Amino acid sequence: MEKDAMAPRRQQTVVMYPSFGVGHIIPMTELARVLLRRGLDVTMVLIERPFWPSDSGAATTRRVMAANPAITFHVLPPDPSPPDFAGSTKPPFFHTLQLLRRYNGELGRFLRSFPRRRLHSVVTGMFSTYAAEVAAELGVPAYTFFASGAGFLAVVAQLPALLAGRQEGLKVLGDAPLEFLGVPPIPASHMVKELLEHPEEDMCNAMVDALKRVADTDGVLVNTFESLESRAVQALRDPRCVPGKAMPPIYCIGPVVGDGSPHREMPPERRHELLAWLDAQPERSVVYLCFGSRGTLPAEQLREIAVGLERSGHRFLWVVRTPAGTDDPKKFLEQRPEPDLEALLPAGFLERTGGRGLVVPSWAPQAAVLRHLSTGAFVTHCGWNSVLEAVAAGVPMLCWPLYSEQMLNKVLMTDLDMGVAWEMEGYAAGRVGAEEVEAKVRLVMDSEEGRELRARVAARREDAMAALEDGGTSQEALARFLADVDKLRGQLGD
């Protein structure tokens, strides 16, 4: 046997190629840490979007790079012919997908800089699957890291068959339920909005094309654990899921979440104030409200939340971001200043609730907050990273989805199969009233139904911990992935 074939894993490199956005880069960074502990080197390849200004997302990426010196980060050269984003009528995400496809040449040049035997595998993000074509040309195993759950993946896998031959977009169906194998009925209105367009529209077509390519990789690493989404996982392994084509192997390796260490700097005095405040609260007494790295609410909605929280009488920790103030998607990428809390919230609110509430501008170390013993419930936008962080911490959720696949996640979270959350009514119409905020906070914190919900989530937390232990389902799935890569590399002549 040749000497290189006996080399330790530390001389083998996994090249990770995440999709754009904090919600994709951070979980892939957590996966990188997992692979480092397994003795592999990890290089993460990033692209700087020419139409992404110096905003919070780009700044967070730089902080992630600085906080993970064990990971090698490589930024590909700028696109020599970037699109005219400012003059385009197409959504930013359309340009993102086109940019990822155009970068295959640069990615291929970078991969060829590695000695062939050193390349362990290429792991793409759920929207950067174009890279699998480059890996196939080089004879390198290519896998997808699906940062959302198995339920969304099951829907994605079955979506092309649903759209095939349709003369109208799904939007015309309104709230009519869509039936997919492995998940509860999904109201058509709860699908990702880009997928509601006519199937031949550029945005819908581009997104479906990118997601279809997930099934063309050698396997899919899913950020979930089997017992949390058992029906969906079984569906993905069912021949009926994608008629005429078998899904590649599915590896449920989650929950891959942060350990509470910050990915973002926070002024030391503010972080100390936040954690000291949590330390002073009774166990499971605090309602935590946060709507993700991109989630913003109108000023009128913020005032409704404030009134509802005040009336509830419960302790709360609330992360408030400056309202976007516009529906223009181009503005979605802009840096927003810290909010003026006095101006946004009802007069006297901060003073009246100061003894039992803390309002934090812009950002909080979420994993640390959720793992704190004083946190008793979580009002969330239903981003999958947030869902897993809450499940891993055993914190029940109140669902307030805003965009992307979050409404679909809400359906899964509130279904009894998962059973980790309740719905905040009114979000679909664009207004959750103060009375609903008050009622749902009281329900989750005070009622017998709330105690039952907490018990279910506590059981899910135990399941998550068991999945990650030696011999647990997620550890076994990770071991299968590594063994399958070794086998595939042998078949490819490595």
TrEMBL record:
Domain of life assignment: Eukaryota
Top EC class of this enzyme: transferase
Keywords carried by this UniProt record: Glycosyltransferase, Transferase
Enzyme Commission number(s) from the entry: 2.4.1.-
Record's keyword annotation contains Transferase: yes
Pfam families registered for this protein in UniProt: UDPGT
PANTHER family: GLYCOSYLTRANSFERASE
Family per record: Belongs to the UDP-glycosyltransferase family.
Identification of the protein by name: Glycosyltransferase
Organism placement in taxonomy: Eukaryota, Viridiplantae, Streptophyta, Embryophyta, Tracheophyta
